[in-house]
């Protein structure tokens, strides 16, 4: 997966004492996305906008809003989170991901 002609924000988005980090970029169509990396841990994220999380490598065990049990997402798999909600992500080894913001 490659992106061309993007606008990249140089500053990293750093969460959970550095265990989760990402970089924001904008496609030539103006879409906002982040490429990120998660180290092992148990995280709860809140969303302002709806998001689509695509796992590039590693795994994310996600418990999505309205679901009682988690599901493991691996490379090539994705899940969506509604706006103004929270979800849990458990990472056992690492996770490399692409987050797309859905308007």
Task: Tell me about this structure.
With 103 residues, the protein is mainly β. It has one domain: Jelly Rolls (Sandwich), CATH 2.60.120.10. It contains no helices and 11 strands. It has strands at residues 7-8, 13-15, 20-26, 32-38, 41-46, 50-58, 60-63, 71-73, 78-81, 86-91, 95-102. Strands 1, 2, 3, 4, 6, 9 and 11 form a 7-stranded antiparallel β-sheet that branches. It has a 4-stranded antiparallel β-sheet with strand order 5-10-7-8, with no helix packed on it.
Layout of secondary structure:
Elements: E1 7-8, E2 13-15, E3 20-26, E4 32-38, E5 41-46, E6 50-58, E7 60-63, E8 71-73, E9 78-81, E10 86-91, E11 95-102
Antiparallel strand pairs: 1-3, 2-3, 3-4, 4-11, 5-10, 6-9, 6-11, 7-8, 7-10
Task: Spell out the key features of this protein.
seven-stranded antiparallel beta sheet, Jelly Rolls, mainly beta, 103 residues, four-stranded antiparallel beta sheet, 11 strands
**Count of individual domains:** 1
> What is the total tally of β strands?
11
Number of discrete helical segments: 0
What would the CATH topology be? Jelly Rolls
The percentage helix is: under 10%
Assign the CATH class.
Mainly Beta
Q: Element order, helices and strands?
A: EEEEEEEEEEE
Alpha-carbon distance between the two ends:
22 Å
Low-confidence stretches: none
Q: Report the major sheet.
A: 7 strands, antiparallel
Concise account of the structure shown:
Helix content is 0%, strand content 57%.
């Amino acid at each position: 997966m490659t992106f061309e002609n993007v606008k990249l924000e140089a500053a990293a988005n750093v969460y959970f004492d550095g265990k989760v980090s990402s970089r924001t970029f904008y496609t030539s169509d103006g879409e906002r996305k982040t490429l990120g990396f998660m180290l092992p841990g148990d995280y709860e994220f809140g969303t302002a906008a709806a998001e689509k999380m695509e796992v590039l490598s590693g795994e994310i065990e996600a418990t999505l809003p309205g679901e009682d049990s988690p599901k493991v997402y691996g490379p090539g798999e994705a899940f969506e989170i509604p706006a103004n909600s929270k979800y849990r992500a458990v990472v056992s080894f690492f996770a490399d991901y692409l987050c797309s913001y859905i308007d």
